[in-house]
Each structure stands twice: as structure tokens, then as C-alpha cells.
Write a structure and sequence with these properties.
GO terms for molecular function: oxidoreductase activity, acting on paired donors, with oxidation of a pair of donors resulting in the reduction of molecular oxygen to two molecules of water. Residues 133-377 form the Fatty acid desaturase domain. There is one protein chain. By secondary structure, the chain is mainly alpha-helical. The protein contains 18 helices and six strands. It has one domain (87-200, 209-396). Strand 2 and strand 3 form a beta hairpin. Helix 4 runs antiparallel to helix 5 (130-156). The protein is globular.
């Protein structure tokens, strides 16, 4: 039930430090529906979140404060779309005035630099001295996460290039060859489900990250070490949902990527036994697994969650259910701005690159605050303390559902 302009946004229950308390609601299974399954409510806007791209700009008169809202008038159900349309116009202006270097070049350069650091990392591992050896582990660990997290994430959203054909190639390279996962399922589960139904219980509520049989300390500090082992195993299970040609391609790419890493450790880094090489693979591939797991749960779980048939419109869904963390040099490089300090911007405009999300961040934050919409921000340490303190409620029990009484 939309309120008149100027009324505060309210929802049943209270939100304190990112927590929502209210009437418990049975949580969905968290299983993603098969590819092609229509949205529960038939909402094309949320289901096709990835399809946003810069369009023709309206005249200056159309993007003056309140311009779109005035066109929408007071018609029920259109105010939310008008807010998103107005914000989109502001972002489109920035995108159209940006160079190729800003739109794609910066992030491509980061990925290219990571490739160039690979030889140095493998050669450092040849040293019998501790400092060069640890430098090699650190280098390969950072490079691995830059390619598998930042590269795969940008490729899944086709944010590395404006060509869909090349976007498919980069998705196979980064997701399957580098990350040992399946491109089709990664793109579908992340782009169509998680982005289309952010914090919608049973669909995009991040329940795939929950392991309720583990206690808080094992989950937060020990289980992440198993990510390099679990990832290809999950991918193999998901291959049942793709065509046999795609499954065969994925198997070949996964094997090639893992074997190349293993072969280089034996023949370039000089490891004497297969077990020592495999242990080094595990070490480098799990170097940043802790922040990887933490970031994925910190930025959504504990924020308002909704039933599929009562979720708010897109701009409210993203502003309520997404959180930004502060900038961090290591994580910005390895994971990308869109996963750290610009996650709200990324969920609103998912086809933009990391650098462009950073560029539009002042516009998005100012607009949401001006319209009195939530713009969630918190520190890494604060979220870590929250999850350790409220682990049972947030990660084990069914999440409380947020029933919106009214939205501005």
C-alpha cells in the first residue's frame, strides 16, 4: 500500500544493525527452479534484471527532480517504476558520457595484470627460502581470486564487453576454465535468480550459502578452506541440468584448468610430489575464501526478506535487501567494487562494470537518500560481529519475513 510522498518508509518488525525482527515465516527450500521457470508472480522487471542497459536519454526536462514522478502522477503502482526510471536516466547520462576505458578498460587491465603476474608467482614457489615462497603463494592466491571472482562475476553479467558473442567466450573462460564451474548454471542462478529475486525467500534469499549443520566458528573460519574442493563437486552435480554438449564442454574446461595449475606447479615451481602440488593448489585457491564467503552473506542475509507474492518493486527491493561494505584495496582488486563497496549500485544496474559502479555510486547514494529510501552500509568488522552473535537466527533458523506496511 503506497504512502503519499513525504511519509516515512515502515515495515513490520524492527531493523537494527542490519537485523530484522518480526513474525517468523517458514523459509523456502532455497532450491533454484529449473531454467525457464517463470517468476512466481510473473514479474518481468525483476526476472529480467540483467537486461538493463543504457537507452536513449530523455530531454533535460524529463530528469529534473520529480520530473518522472510528475508524469506518473498519483496512479497506484507507478510511483515505484517512476523512481527507478528517474534514477536510470541519471545513470544513463553518466554511462553515455564515459569512455570505453571507464566502461570496460579499467577492469580488463586489472585482469590482464593478474595474468602477467602468474609467471612471477610460479617462479617464486621454486625458492627454498620462506619469504619468496610465501610471496609466490600470496601472488597466486590473489591472482586466482581476481580471475575466478572478479573475472567470473563480470563475465556472468556480460560487463567485460559490449559484444554478446565475446561475452559468452569470456564467461566460459573465467567461469569454467579458471573457476571450475559451469557457465550456464552460474549465470542462471546468479543473474536470473539471485538478481531477479534478491532476498525473496525460496528464490534469491542467499539460502545456498547456509549450512545449518555447522556451528558458527566452523562455518565462518574453517569451512571456507573447503571451497576449492566443494566448487567443482557442486558443478558436477549441476551438469545434470544442462545439455550434454554444454556438459561435455564444461568437463573439458574444468579438467584443463585444474590440470594446468597442477602441471605448472610440478614443472615450473619444481614441486617433487603430487601431494605437495595438490596441497599448494588448495592453499592458493583458498587464500581469500574466507572473505569470499563472508561477503556473500554479509551483504544480504540479515536484511529484510520478502515472500514471492508480496515483494516490493525493484528499486525498493534492492535498496532494502542489499548492503555496501567499505572500500578495501585487496578486496577491491580481487573481488571488484561491485561486490564490495558498490553492491547496491551493482544490483540496481547489474550490467555495469566494477569501475562504472564506482563512478555512479555518488549519484545512486544521493538519489536514494534524497528520496528517503534505504542505502545500507556497514563495516566488515561490524557484520562479522553481528553474524557471530546472531548466527543461529540468521544462518540456522528460518529468516523472518518482512511485511511492508508502507513504502514512500
Amino acid at each position: 500500500m503506497p504512502l503519499e510522498d513525504g511519509d516515512p518508509a515502515r515495515w513490520r518488525g524492527q531493523q537494527v544493525n542490519g537485523e530484522v525482527s518480526g513474525t517468523p515465516h517458514p523459509r523456502g527450500t532455497g532450491d533454484t527452479p529449473p531454467r525457464g521457470t517463470p517468476a512466481p508472480d510473473g514479474s518481468r522487471t525483476e526476472a529480467m534484471a540483467e537486461d538493463w542497459e543504457p537507452g536513449p536519454a530523455l530531454g533535460d526536462r524529463d530528469i529534473t527532480p520529480g520530473g518522472v514522478l510528475q508524469r506518473a502522477g498519483q496512479e497506484p503502482g507507478r510511483r515505484e517504476e517512476a523512481l527507478m526510471a528517474e534514477l536510470s536516466e541519471l545513470v544513463q547520462k553518466v554511462v553515455k558520457s564515459s569512455s570505453w576505458w571507464e566502461r570496460h578498460g579499467v577492469d580488463i587491465s586489472i585482469l590482464a595484470c593478474s595474468f602477467l603476474l602468474l609467471p612471477a608467482g610460479f617462479l617464486c614457489l621454486r625458492s627454498a627460502q620462506a619469504i619468496p615462497f610465501l610471496a609466490g603463494v600470496l601472488t597466486l592466491g590473489v591472482v586466482h581470486h581476481t580471475l575466478t571472482v572478479k573475472g567470473s562475476h563480470l563475465a556472468s553479467h556480460n560487463a567485460l564487453t559490449e559484444s554478446k558473442s565475446w561475452g559468452k567466450v569470456w564467461a566460459i573462460f573465467f567461469i569454467e576454465l579458471c573457476s571450475a564451474f559451469t557457465a550456464e548454471q552460474a549465470t542462471y542462478n546468479h543473474v536470473k535468480i539471485h538478481h531477479g529475486y534478491t532476498n525473496v525467500i525460496g528464490l534469491g534469499d542467499s539460502s545456498t550459502w547456509k549450512l545449518p549443520f555447522l556451528n558458527r566458528y566452523i562455518y565462518m573460519f574453517i569451512a571456507p578452506l573447503a571451497v576449492p574442493i566443494i566448487t567443482p563437486l557442486v558443478a558436477l552435480d549441476l551438469l545434470r541440468n544442462v545439455e550434454w554438449k554444454a556438459a561435455l564442454r564444461t568437463l573439458c574446461c574444468m579438467f584443463l584448468g585444474l590440470y594446468c595449475h597442477y602441471w605448472l606447479l610440478l614443472h615450473v615451481s619444481g614441486f617433487q610430489s603430487p601431494w605437495s602440488a595438490l596441497l599448494c593448489m588448495l592453499l592458493t585457491r583458498s587464500l581469500l575464501a574466507h572473505p569470499y564467503i563472508h561477503v556473500n552473506i554479509f551483504q544480504h542475509i540479515g536484511l529484510p526478506m520478502f515472500a514471492a507474492d508480496r515483494k516490493p518493486k525493484r528499486i525498493h527491493l534492492m535498496s532494502l535487501g542489499v548492503l555496501n561494505l567499505p572500500r578495501n584495496a585487496l578486496l577491491d582488486w580481487s573481488f571488484g567494487h561491485s561486490l564490495i563497496s558498490c553492491h547496491v549500485e551493482h544490483h540496481l544496474f547489474p550490467s555495469l562494470s566494477d569501475n562504472m559502479c564506482l563512478k555512479i555510486k555518488p549519484i545512486v547514494s544521493q538519489y536514494l537518500k534524497q528520496k528517503k529510501l534505504p542505502y545500507n552500509e556497514d563495516t566488515y568488522a561490524s557484520r562479522l560481529r553481528l553474524f557471530l552473535r546472531r548466527y543461529e537466527e540468521l544462518m540456522v533458523h528460518a529468516p523472518p519475513i518482512t511485511e511492508l506496511v508502507g513504502i514512500q
